[in-house]
Predict the 3D structure of the following.
Amino acid sequence: MDISEPKIARRDILILDDDNFKADNVCIVSGAGTGIGRATAIAAAANGLLTVGFDIDKDEGLRTREMARQMGGQICSFLDFPDLPDI
């Protein structure tokens, strides 16, 4: 059985006509490397929000950032927490 994350296409993202969706407003997303967190980060970025993503998997986070860029959005930085269990 293939259990994989669905592809996200630009046509799948709801683009909202909202004056508050601009780079002056920040969207912080935890778990942005995969799944619902990835989808949330990409949708927020594609809607023009300044998006910051957090995840324990930096490589997947960087992939999320590239996906957002391909859809016209931008995730300004991606932070990982490899030692989070030690905190």
